[in-house]
Structures are given as structure tokens and as C-alpha cells.
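Working notes for the structural subgroup meeting. M.R. asked for a predicted model of this chain before we commit to crystallization trials. I am recording the input and output together here so anyone reviewing the notebook later can reproduce the run.

Input as submitted:
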Amino acid sequence: MRGLTLLVATADGDRLHAALTYAAAGAAAGRSVKLHLHEGAVSLLARSPEAPGDAARAKAGLPTLAQIFDEALSLGVAISVCQSGLALAAIDLAELDFRIEAQGPVGLLAASDEDRLIVF
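Returned structure, recorded in C-alpha cell form:
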């Protein structure tokens, strides 16, 4: 089964939520899944992740952005953040969950040899 690499390109909480949902689903189905936050998307991690639709999700019994983020990590989704994005958001990697790693585009693509690549 081919792996899946998901790339979140903007600081949009709902896009990150969608990417995490598909990442968690892929991991639950036994796929190798990588999720990469590029530049502006990294800023979503500067605080507890929130998305505009979280209140409605919680009311409907669906996971919020923070909950699906934790679920994806628990399922083994490999989450990486752009080194430039860390600098732009003034975030130190050590402030983030220990399972998140910094990675640039060359490293991400090299590690995603046969993966399907989806951009959010």
C-alpha cells in the first residue's frame, strides 16, 4: 500500500483539520502517513490549535482541531514543520510536541519517494 504525504500550505485551521482527518484515517487504515506544515501553517501551532469550525464540531460530537491533532500523532502520523515556518512564527521546535520534527522541502520529498502527495 502506497504511503500518503499531506502538505498544509497556509495558516488555515479548517484546512489543517481536514488534512489531519485524512492523515488519521490513512494511518488507521494501515498506511504510512506524513503531514507537513509549510511556512504560515506552522503558526497554527503557536498556541493550542484551533479552527473556525471547532465550536460546531464540538457541539456535533466531532473532534476539534486540537483533538484530531492528538489523535493523528497517537496513530503514528509523522508530523513535520517547515524550518522557515518556525522562524517566521518565532517558534522554537522544543516548544512543540516531541513527536514533531523540523524538515525542509528537500527532506520531505526525499522521504516521500512513492507516496501520494496531497496539498491542502
